[in-house]
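Homework help board

Subject: predicted structure for assignment chain

Our instructor gave us this sequence and asked us to write out the predicted structure in token form, then describe one feature. I got the tokens but I'm not sure how to describe them. Can anyone check?
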Amino acid sequence: MRTQTGSSRWMGLAASLGLLVAGGAAISTLTQAQPSLAQTAKASALPEVWQPASEADEALIWRFVLQSPMGVAALNQLAIEGFISPVCEKTLYTHATYESFQTLLRVQCPTPGGVSAARAYDEMRITFNRFEDTIDTFAVERVYID
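My token output:
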């Protein structure tokens, strides 16, 4: 019988927990092992499908987020992990194709945060998916840069 060493067993468990689905919200982490400078810049950059939201879109998006239970749940996740603060920069983006039906909230704080004792995150990103006037689902992405 072959046995795994303790460290490889934990690494397998950590890899399998990279994507959790709880209460309709996908919660994932973005991890990289010792990135190069090019990878570091790439990790913090957003894909080209995201464009900054206009002032009118921002007002509309905040209304949808604050009036939807899933939107409030996403904000609660940010608060739990210490990313709700007046010093944190919050930027809203809309999807190039789906416009405000899929939006991204990017939160960057001057000091890393998060609830993990092993790793602090430099930024958190929440992708909101809207159906009609209600946030239907959201995904949380935790980004850290070495």
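Reply (TA_rk): Your tokens look well-formed. For the description, you could write something like this. Residues 24-143 form one domain. That's the kind of observation they're looking for.
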